[in-house]
Design a protein that fits this description.
The structure holds 2 protein chains of 2 kinds.
Chain A lengths: L1 H8 L2 H23 L22 E3 L6 E12 L6 E12 L1 E11 L3 E9 L22 H7 L2 H28 L1 H16 L2 H10 L7 H31 L3 H8 L4 H9 L4 H25 L10 H4 L6 H6 L5 H24 L6
Chain B lengths: L1 H10 L6 E16 L4 E17 L3 E5 L6 H8 L10 E6 L2 E4 L5 H8 L2 E4 L13 H11 L5 H14 L16 H13 L5 E5 L7 H18 L2 E6 L2 H7 L2 E6 L2 E7 H6 L4 H8 L36 H6 L2 H5 L5 E2 L6 E2 L12 H6 L5
Parallel strand pairs in B: 3-8, 3-9, 6-7, 7-8
Antiparallel strand pairs in B: 1-2, 1-4, 4-5, 9-10, 10-12, 11-12
Classes of the chains: A alpha+beta, B alpha/beta.
Chain lengths: 359, 363
């Protein structure tokens, strides 16, 4: 294991992947603290506001004070296009504060807190908002929603990886170790799963979810569905590895002193497939994140009030929307980052466990 | 009914002082072909092997590659299931048990009594386990020792095989081949067995290490009163360690005798040919080798009669009909425990090692 990490360090792409994922995990953990607004708070006056990230000013031209601030915004309807436009109102200065106490949340669901990294004072809320990535049609802050939306895809990715690996190892281990008719049966079962088109199967499964299910149930249903289409390749590879590992003399030695099949599979065979499993887990997680977004985007996966990148991208469904509010694509960047992170890490791990490189 | 059970018991007894007796041991592997995996033939890997091992002795089992000696060893341990009709009589606490008739579950108590040492020290140790875990694993499986007690036992075992117990927490890849073989031996000793099947334990080792491991095995035999079935193809190694030797050819035992007797007075032409092939470390020595014609016949379709007859120089000379038509029995030819499966064991004058080495050419 330590050997593996050592070799991983020599791959800079792998390191990038690792740090991207670390950053996303931290974002997921600290999302409440990092968000200026609750993810579901509506700002009726500020629907479809463009990102203010580019409008942050650092020094006041009048007083020369430094420190980030925004100008108040005025809503103007363009007389020619009748499009709503926002204009800076330089008479009103709204400072951006750090370490502000505003809305309260529970960190990790346990500790109550109202501390936030960024924020503006409450009495200026009617004239401008700190909408770093803009707002959606209902006036919800996209930045806060993206941060909160990091949680479900990441948790889902990890859970799917665990379940796929768990089930794949179970089926593959038994299939490879016992062989014979059982192996034949399990392999045909596995192949049946592999031969189904993944996305179509997923859509059918998720569309079959009863309407009355709570968002939490839907989430677990989605995890189960994605794991169901993901375990088969793991089972096949594990079977192959177990098939060759069971011929090793140390397995024969264990049989001679009377170890049970479960003991042999668990202690001798599975640990020796671990390097493959680590790699597979990373790649499965990446895939799961993409699949979740795809399905949620298509409207079969997670539903409001849950927040996930795929759900946020739903507002980017129509071309006119995209033309008017291109910032709704920002969640896609985060999605891409996560997937690239997982893949870089997975590829680097794969190279690191390559037996030809093992000394 | 009572007479029948009495008869069964009677035939299942072994002689006094014998630890293991194998009768009619058979293992045929099916050869399958086609989509329906129909059995088209059998590889007769072990075809009716009989031998016995006395308590505390070492029986060397020799033969060419592919003659079935490893299969025989593994079948005795039920690593490979013997074919019906085989009997593996094991004597324990003055009672004889037929291991071939036990269900796998019933085998477990007897598993403590018999262990194996493998040829390849690299694949016989799980690379993911520490030495302490490897050597202590049999103790865990049989629930004999836990925690500190187990650690103490592992320490003791490592010392017994000449390894520093300080290396307990290391992994197999940190050891040399000889050291790894010692770890494998320590594992085999963990449950205090009676019989150890040594499956070519030194064939994969460097010659200098071979001697160390062989001597270690002999020391351990004295210390713990072990009985060995020593499978090998190197006659000089076998001669050094064995009390008696059984020679195997094409799934059958062709000769079995005390070591020195077998080397001096072989009673089977195959043994004679093997002995003539032992290398002598003398550059001036001109070997008078008996070159066996052709290859070892296929065990799928072994020759009729005596399986050795197509390569036997005496059959080639005399064309005896018996050799071709009659399967020879393994019989005691001297009356003193020298068994041979040759129709003409008594008639033939075969050369032992001394005659061969004695024919040294003068410079």
């Amino acid at each position: 294991m330590s050997n593996l990490l050592g070799r991983l360090k020599s791959s800079w792409l792998g390191l990038i992947g690792f740090f991207v994922l670390l950053a996303l995990a931290l974002i997921a953990l600290l999302a409440d603290f990092l968000s200026p607004y609750p993810a579901d708070e509506l700002h009726a006056d500020f629907s479809s506001t463009p990102p203010v990230l580019t409008q942050i000013h650092w020094t006041d031209p009048e007083t020369g004070d430094s420190g980030p601030f925004l100008y108040g915004s005025q809503k103007i309807r363009n007389p020619f296009t009748s499009k709503v436009e926002f204009k800076e109102d330089t008479s009103l200065k709204i400072p951006i504060n750090f370490w502000v106490h505003s809305w309260s949340y529970k960190f990790l669901g346990i500790w109550s807190s109202d501390l936030h990294l960024l924020g503006t004072s409450a009495n200026t809320a009617s004239s401008a908002g700190l909408f770093l990535f803009g707002t959606d049609k209902l006036g919800r802050d996209l930045f806060s929603r993206i941060l909160i939306g990091t949680r479900l895809p990441l948790i889902l990715g990890i859970l799917v990886a665990l379940f796929s690996i768990g089930f794949g190892v179970f089926v593959g281990g038994i299939s490879g170790y016992f062989g014979g008719a059982l192996d034949l049966l399990l392999q045909r079962f596995t192949e049946a799963f592999m031969s189904l088109p993944r996305l179509a199967l997923l859509l059918v499964l998720t569309a079959a979810v009863p309407i009355g299910w709570t968002p939490q149930y839907r989430f677990w249903g989605l995890v189960a569905a994605i794991a169901l289409v993901g375990w088969a390749p793991v089972a096949r590879v594990v079977r192959g590895q177990v098939l060759s590992l069971r011929e090793e003399s140390y397995v024969a030695a264990a049989k001679v002193f009377g170890a049970s099949s479960a003991h042999i599979i668990w202690k001798h065979l599975i640990p020796n497939t671990m390097s493959y499993l680590i790699v597979a887990a990373t790649l499965i997680a990446a895939n799961a994140v993409v699949l979740e977004s795809t399905i949620s985007f298509l409207g079969f996966g997670l539903q409001e009030p849950n927040v996930s990148w795929g759900l946020l991208l739903q507002s980017a469904k129509s071309i006119p929307d995209l033309q008017l509010h291109p910032w709704v694509l920002i969640p896609g960047c985060f999605l891409a980052m996560a997937v690239v992170g997982f893949n870089f890490l997975g590829d680097a791990l794969r190279d690191a466990v390559d037996p030809r490189m093992a000394l | 009914m009572p007479t029948e059970t009495a008869q069964k018991k009677e035939t299942a007894q072994v002689n006094e002082g014998v630890l293991l007796e194998v009768r009619n041991l058979r293992k045929f592997f099916p050869v399958k072909k086609g989509i329906f995996r129909r059995t088209v033939a059998h590889v007769k890997a072990v075809d009716g092997v009989d031998f016995f091992i006395k308590q505390g002795e070492t029986l060397g089992l020799v033969g060419e590659s592919g003659c079935g000696k490893t299969t025989a060893g593994r079948t005795i341990l039920r690593l490979i299931e013997p074919d019906p009709g085989s009997r593996i009589l094991f004597r324990i606490n003055d009672k004889t048990v037929d291991l071939a008739r036990l269900r796998p579950r019933q085998m477990k108590p007897f598993r403590r009594q018999m262990q194996i040492i493998f040829q390849d020290p690299y694949s016989s140790l799980n690379p993911r386990m520490t030495v302490a875990d490897i050597v202590g694993e049999p103790l865990v499986v049989h629930g004999v020792a836990r925690g500190k007690e187990r650690e103490a036992r592992v320490r003791e075992l490592l010392e017994a095989v000449g390894l520093n117990p300080a290396y307990m927490k290391r992994y197999p890849h940190e050891f040399s081949g000889g050291q790894r073989q010692r770890i494998g031996i320590a594992r085999a000793l963990a449950l205090d067995p009676q019989l150890i099947v040594c499956d070519e334990p030194v064939s994969a080792l460097d010659v200098s290490i071979q001697a160390q491991v062989i001597n270690l095995l002999q020391d351990l035999q004295k210390e713990f009163g072990l009985t060995y079935l020593f499978i090998a193809h190197d006659l000089s190694v076998v001669r050094h360690i064995s009390t008696r030797i059984a020679v195997m050819y094409l799934g059958k035992i062709v000769e079995m005798a005390d070591t020195e007797e077998l080397f001096r007075m072989p009673k089977h032409p195959y043994t004679e040919a093997l002995l003539s092939a032992v290398p002598v470390p003398d550059p001036d020595y001109k070997m008078d080798r008996i070159i066996l014609e052709g290859d070892v016949p296929s065990p799928v379709n072994p020759p009729s009669g005596c399986v050795f007859h197509p390569r036997c120089q005496y059959y080639a000379k005399n064309q005896w009909a018996e050799c071709k038509n009659l399967v020879p029995k393994l019989e005691d030819v001297t009356g003193k425990g020298h068994f041979s499966a040759c129709h003409f064991a008594k008639e033939l004058q075969l050369n032992g090692v001394e005659e061969i080495v004695g024919r040294r050419t003068t410079k």
